[in-house]
């Protein structure tokens, strides 16, 4: 299904691999070693902050995971949350999108990744750069109300279509860590050129901890 390719395949695999780093299994130890061998300063985001600020999004408030609320547009549909290896994932499909691709959409995740946000997002950035289908990758430290740490990741993703051809999706992913060390990610995916200033972006920026 094109919807799975568009939303889930690369972002979910990236997150799943990160959550498994350090677990038993071939490749996991190598991935963990690659990050832990870096000096902490080398992992610090160096891109200029985007200056993200909370939005005054219109719609209905939802609590996809414990400790986080969002405001999504009226008419948004919600898929049943799933939990795997301590990571809870919820997906929302926004109204007015493309039925074939399932976009625009939001993906929310929460869990204890066992390491700090700087290290985790550094690892995510390396995975995105190594995948060969992502461009314009940006990683920056941000400030967010109630968060001990916040990092923004953005990129454009080339997606193969069934039957041939490709299209590009734009992705915004906001990473938040609370004072207890719990990690939250709120990600919006939309067709190229349709994310900036959209309801999907507003929904990400409506993220409220606590």
UniProtKB/TrEMBL annotation:
<keyword id="KW-0732">Signal</keyword>
<feature type="region of interest" description="Disordered">
    <location>
        <begin position="24"/>
        <end position="83"/>
    </location>
</feature>
<protein>
    <recommendedName>
        <fullName>Lipoprotein LpqN</fullName>
    </recommendedName>
</protein>
<feature type="signal peptide">
    <location>
        <begin position="1"/>
        <end position="21"/>
    </location>
</feature>
């Amino acid at each position: 299904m094109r919807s799975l390719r568009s939303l889930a395949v690369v972002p979910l695999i990236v997150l799943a691999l990160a959550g498994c780093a350090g677990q038993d299994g071939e490749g996991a130890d190598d991935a963990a070693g690659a990050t832990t061998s870096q000096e902490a300063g080398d992992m610090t985001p160096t891109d200029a902050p985007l200056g993200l600020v909370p939005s005054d999004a219109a719609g209905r408030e939802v609590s996809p995971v414990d400790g986080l609320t969002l405001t999504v547009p009226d008419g948004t549909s919600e898929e049943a949350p799933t939990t795997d290896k301590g990571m809870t994932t919820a997906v929302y499909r926004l109204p007015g999108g493309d039925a074939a691709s399932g976009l625009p959409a939001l993906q929310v995740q929460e869990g204890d990744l066992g390491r700090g946000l700087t290290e985790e997002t550094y690892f995510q950035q390396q995975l995105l750069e190594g995948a060969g289908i992502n461009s314009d990758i940006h990683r920056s430290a941000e400030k967010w109300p109630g968060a001990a740490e916040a990092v923004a990741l953005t990129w454009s993703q080339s997606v193969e279509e069934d039957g041939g051809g490709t299209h590009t999706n734009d992705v915004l992913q906001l990473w938040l860590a609370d004072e207890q060390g719990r990690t939250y990610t709120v990600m919006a995916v939309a067709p190229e050129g349709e994310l900036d200033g959209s309801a999907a972006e507003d929904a990400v920026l409506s993220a409220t901890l606590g």
